[in-house]
Every structure is written in C-alpha cells, then in structure tokens.
Amino acid sequence: MKLPGSKSTPSPNGARRSPPPPGAPPPSVRPTQVPTGTTVRAGGPPPGTPPRSAQGEEFIVDLKRRREQLVARVAELQWDLGGLTYEMAIRNSIRVEVLVKRAAELQDADAELNEVERILRMEESATAGSCPTCGAPHSSGATFCWQCGKPLLEQVSGDTILRR
Q1: Over the stretch 100-110, which tens digit does the pLDDT of each residue have?
Q2: pLDDT tens digits for 63-97?
Q3: pLDDT reading at 44 higher than 80
C-alpha cells in the first residue's frame, strides 16, 4: 500500500520498497536482511534455536503436568492402601508384606511428588535454598548469605580433599 506523498524505490528483485527513514545508516552499513518472521536478538541464540526462556517455560509446563499426574497417583495409592487395609481387617487376615509393598509404592510416588514441587517452588521463586544459620533464601551460586553474612558452602581444607 502506498501512502500519499511517500516515495518508493525498486529493490534488486523488482519489488518496490520505501526509502530509509531520516538518520538511518547508508545501505552499505546496514545489517543483512533477515527472512520475514525470523526474530533475531543481539547476543541471542542463532536463528533456528529456541530461546532459553521458551525452553524454561516448557520445562515448567512439563513439571506442572508431572505434578498433576503424581498428585492423582498418590491419591489413588492412598485410597487403595486404605481400602486394602480395611478389607484385610474385616476378614481378620492382615498380610503385612502386602501392605508394606503397597506402602513402599506410595512412599516412592510421594517422594517424587515432593521433589517436583520443590523444583517448581525453586523455579517460581528463583531461590536455590535457604541459609542454614538464619533461614534467608539464596540464589544458586551464592557463597555467602545476604542477610547474616555467614558462608553458605562448607569450608574444606586441601588435605581433606587429597585424602578422599
């Protein structure tokens, strides 16, 4: 579409394009053309590589989906274990090994659910842990607590490392 008063110049392939805006660098200094629909960011990943934020978002979506699956699985295992215990009790035939096996399955699923929830909390709050001295949250890579100044990492001497 051509606006009244605008000038356009032919491009190498015969299409017409508008002149550069005032103050734009000359054509010899301009960056090369990028295909339409491609986003290029300075310092970003090369074209064709998804940006990290998209990968991070996919990771969080996958974790949330896994959390939903685990919540349903833990609820089902609890229900089954309770029902199994009840059935054994009314028949006066409690088999501890069967209950222990089912409880172990429940414990494994519950432990995985707790780990997924811990990772999600860490991703959402951008914290990696808390200070053992004062309990203040800290980010990954922090070596000293921002609140009390105590070291977050255990100090180990060189001799101890060599002995291991």
Answers
A1: 999 999 999 99
A2: 899 999 999 999 999 999 999 999 999 999 999 99
A3: no
CA dihedral 127, 129, 130, 133 (to 10 degrees): -140
Burial annotation 118-154 (CB, 10 A radius, 16+ → b, else e): eeeeeeeeeeeeebeeeeebbeeebeebeeeeeebee
Structure-token pair, residue 144:
């000293």
- At position 56, the amino acid (one-letter code) is G
The amino acid sitting at 116 is V
Structural contact between residues 102 and 82, judged by C-beta atoms closer than 8 angstroms: no
And the tokens for 156? 């180990």
Domain boundaries, the chain: 52-126
Provide the phi-psi class of 10: left if phi over 0, else alpha when psi is between -120 and 50, else beta.
beta
Lookup: tokens for 56 = 């991070």
Length of the chain: 164
In contact, 105 and 126? CB cutoff 8 Å? no
- The rounded distance, in Å, linking the Cα atoms of 105 and 46 is 45
Residue 10's φ and ψ, nearest 5 degrees, are -70, 140
